[in-house]
Automatic annotation (TrEMBL):
Catalytic activity entry: a primary alcohol + NADP(+) = an aldehyde + NADPH + H(+)
UniProt name for this protein: alcohol dehydrogenase (NADP(+))
Enzyme Commission number(s): 1.1.1.2
Parts of the chain that traverse the membrane: none
Needed co-factor(s): Zn(2+)
Annotated keywords: Metal-binding, Oxidoreductase, Zinc
Gene3D superfamilies: Medium-chain alcohol dehydrogenases, catalytic domain, NAD(P)-binding Rossmann-like Domain
Domain of life assignment: Bacteria
Residue ranges constituting the Enoyl reductase (ER) domain according to the UniProt record: 14-341
Enzyme class: oxidoreductase
Family: Belongs to the zinc-containing alcohol dehydrogenase family.
Statement: the UniProt record of this protein carries the keyword ATP-binding: no
Amino acid sequence: MSTVAAYAAPAPKAPLERTTIERREVGPHDVLIDIRFAGICHSDIHQVNEGWGEAIFPMVPGHEIAGVVVAAGSEVTRHAVGDRVGVGCMVDSCRECEFCLRGLEQYCANGNTMTYNGVDRNGDVTYGGYSKQIVVDENYVVRIPDALPLDVAAPLLCAGITVYSPLRHWGVAPGKKVAVVGLGGLGHMGVKIAAALGAEVTVLSQSLRKKDDGLKLGAHDYRSTGDPATFTELAGEFDVVLSTVSAPLDFGAYLGLLKTDGAIVNVGAPEEPISLNLFALLGGRKTLAGSMIGGIAETQEMLDFCAEHGLGAEIELIDADQINTAYDRVQSSDVRYRFVIDATTI
Ligand SMILES: [Zn+2]
Ligand SMILES: [Zn+2]
């Protein structure tokens, strides 16, 4: 065991404070990572606030981890001391079910182990990336290519893969038209990645406040969803609509934006159930779908793709003592586009 500094929420909805946690001994298949940067994901805030159900406290959030390997177990073959690596939302899964065997560990039939607010095989509570070091099984650690600076790479481990996986699954490529709903942490990476995949990208946002940013990030068009003309002018335009917002949308209206065989994919999750007239799916054989992060191999593929295309997240780097302020700002949508904690300040 080793004792490391961390920032933890001691109780539900409580401000995060500096503390120490125990990390397990580096086992034969483990690597010890010196965390350099940790992104703040909106889901960290949901979990601290128990917005998604009962959680485990004290909680050390953080599943957008970028760092350097400083020790490796005797059986480790995938990573070596000095390697630049990342850890995302999962640190283990059953490795035996049909989904794990297909590289879809995020949909493990036996439940994967979340990077924090989870319980690992040893029965230990998992603690995330708002800390100095973490011990992770090498199979759940990915390599960060040299072309990607670690600070802008950190948010790719959740925000990047969350949008990359569905864009690939639903065949986004040159000649396809994609709408990205919401230009936040997820949405801004959705625009960058969809444009790099060769698609024509439109941002659909409540207002035109971030239009200049959206066009700079690679969008070809930027429309306000507050303007009813958007839904008539863009009717039947898109192959894929990627919704990154957690506000409940009028899905009937958004389905009207799809071409035949088009799909709306949700990566944001409204807390409230939605109501939908299913006739909106029948004409045009449309799909209303969801997607959750991505598998380990696909996360590596995403990082390699982002390195090749020079895509990192747009970030605001903060010191650890600014985490609580950053939480407030995320909740009031006042971030362009991801807060990243400089873990050396923890
Ligand atoms: Zn996340
Ligand atoms: Zn499994």
